[in-house]
Amino acid sequence: MLRELPQLREEASRLAERLARLRLRATLGQPAEETLRAILKEHRLSSSSDGLAQARETLQEALEEDPRRAGRVARLQALRDFLVRVRAIDLEAGAAQELLEMPRRNLVKPPGDAGLHGALPPVLVERQLPFERDRDKRAELE
Question: Three-state DSSP class for 64?
């Protein structure tokens, strides 16, 4: 059963806030409080094909009724575009979670003896890079 468009917008707005917090924590190198799957499970309408279909149909109706109402059309296009991205994430939540966690993985191998310090997460290296005085070492880290 489809809900009304205002309810879909409200749920999409709450979902966008949670996804933004998740991305911010990943960018800062902080551990995630929840997984993408858990977030999407709580926002089933926004991540379902029914919600996307409702947004698409409403946009099509708005374009047919009065294409000059650019504000309404632009908001509906933004909603539809967001729901398309969310639907793609929902279809491959595991892969999306891996991409989200990549900045925290130990991927950067600093120059020198690997046995001394091992690999570092990219987010940590990016934070320390401006303070590295040795030009050669900075170049290798980049």
Answer: helix
